[in-house]
Design brief:
Structural class: alpha+beta
Largest sheet: 4 strands, antiparallel
CATH superfamily of the largest domain: Outer membrane efflux proteins (OEP)
CATH architecture of the largest domain: Up-down Bundle
Radius of gyration: 39 Å
């Protein structure tokens, strides 16, 4: 390359280098963007999420069933008058009877009396179901909040990586434009032009894949927050994240807390309790209920104005609810086994998550804090050396590629570390690391 052409190209490249920090990621679909902190995102989620709203309605519905279970059976009243078709019987005390004259009147009132404390057992089952609905609500909150926080940090670090692609692509586009201006003047070898364009196309393809990954995660985050037509820009406190320490809580503390706070474990315990209550209720159903009644008969009995009191009860000769009792007993064993499986899963999940947190934190701590700053400084020095022709253009671009790979790797390490802390929060059911 001749000296004049080299100066022109260096000037164009210097312009692109100076513009590094001023480029933006523009989303063509969403014109509005919103910067959100994690606390703000969680507040929006708790207010707006429709799944939470639906589950809250379910809790209210289950609590209403407690009221229903406490209600006593309604008494039954019956009344009859006749005859509808007039009767003529000379042998009767009333030879001529119809609906209006010499009519027969009969009335009775009865009350079902639940035996074997069935009503009390129904109330306990309704209360347990209401508690189960609350635990399901809390577990839904825990699961969706985990998705929200994971997506929040994933988008944050992906956007940091996307900035590197955006800057390098814009710089290479300007370099290609400079090459095109010098094309045919003999200043630049054709193989260098092809090499630069190939690297530009490769960066653009990688950048497009990264943008699609960001947009997919943005879509999921918008669904969790129940917001539309906005592009979310997470705002994170890097110093606060860097201060997280996996040694802050021992494994036993994390496991003990999980046994108290994990809502899926509480759901398993509640299901076991409900199965035991259902078993007791099914055994109670084997005892027939009693119906007490009082009746009045004006003239249909052997005496006029006849009154009586009576009781009625089923005789449990054939159906003693045997099948339902056996089924309820089996459900107890099923839910106990499921509860033990959940407990074992909780302990293993926490142990593995803590191990991953130690590994990711160790890798993060091994990164020299000055490394990124040194890379930024070297980037400028590489440019100056290229200007002085101490290195070739391809060496200059190779350093660009190294800069990109370094940034992507560091962002990946940071995300894996913070995600491992989020896993611990999720598996313990408590925001130990916030």
């Amino acid at each position: 390359m001749s000296k004049p052409g080299r100066y022109i190209l260096v000037a164009l490249i210097f312009y692109s280098y100076a513009a590094f920090g001023q480029t933006k990621l523009n989303n063509q679909l969403f014109k509005d963007s919103v910067s959100l902190t994690l606390d703000s995102a969680e507040n929006i989620f708790l207010r707006n999420n429709l799944l939470l709203l639906a589950q809250r309605y379910n809790v209210d519905a289950q609590k209403a069933l407690i009221i229903q279970a406490k209600l006593l059976p309604n008494p039954n009243f019956s009344y009859a008058r006749g005859p509808l078709i007039p009767i003529h019987d000379d042998q009767s005390n009333y030879p001529y009877s119809n609906f209006f004259n010499n009519a027969e009147n009969a009335a009775s009132i009865s009350q079902l009396i639940l035996l074997a404390r069935k009503r009390n057992k129904q109330i306990k089952i309704a209360e347990a179901n209401a508690q189960l609905a609350e635990f399901q609500l809390f577990d839904l909150i825990r699961t969706l909040k985990y998705t929200l926080r994971s997506d929040f940090f994933n988008i944050y670090y992906l956007q940091q990586s996307a900035k590197v692609y955006d800057k390098e692509i814009q710089s290479l586009q300007r370099v290609v434009a400079a090459f095109n201006q010098q094309q045919g003047k003999g200043y630049i070898a054709e193989k260098e032009v092809v090499r630069i364009k190939a690297q530009l196309y490769s960066l653009q393809s990688e950048f497009n894949d990264l943008i699609n990954q960001i947009n997919d995660t943005e879509s999921e985050l918008r669904l969790v927050l129940q917001v539309k037509n906005i592009y979310i820009i997470p705002v994170s406190n890097d110093n606060k994240i860097a201060a997280l320490n996996p040694l802050q809580y021992p494994l036993t503390t994390l496991v003990d807390t999980a046994y108290k706070s994990r809502t899926d474990l509480q759901i398993a315990k509640t299901n076991t309790n409900i199965s035991k209550l259902t078993y007791n209720y099914q055994k109670a159903l084997a005892t027939p209920d009693l119906t007490a009644s009082i009746a009045y008969d004006k003239q249909g009995s052997y005496a006029q104005n006849f009154t009586s009191a009576g009781i009625a009860i089923d005789l449990p000769f054939f159906n003693r609810n045997q099948g339902n009792i056996k089924s309820a007993k089996s459900m107890i064993d099923y839910n106990i086994a499921s509860q033990k499986s959940t407990e074992a899963t909780v302990e293993e999940q926490i142990a593995r998550a803590l191990q991953k947190t130690f590994d990711n934190d160790r890798l993060y701590q091994n990164i020299d804090p000055k490394f990124t700053k040194d890379f930024d400084r070297l980037l400028n020095e590489v440019f100056l050396n290229y200007e002085k022709r101490n290195i070739g253009l391809l060496d200059f671009l190779d350093f660009y590629d190294s800069y990109k790979q370094n940034t992507l790797q560091i962002n990946s390490i940071k995300y894996n570390r913070v995600q491992s802390f989020e896993d611990l929060n999720f598996y313990t059911g408590t925001n130990f690391f916030n």
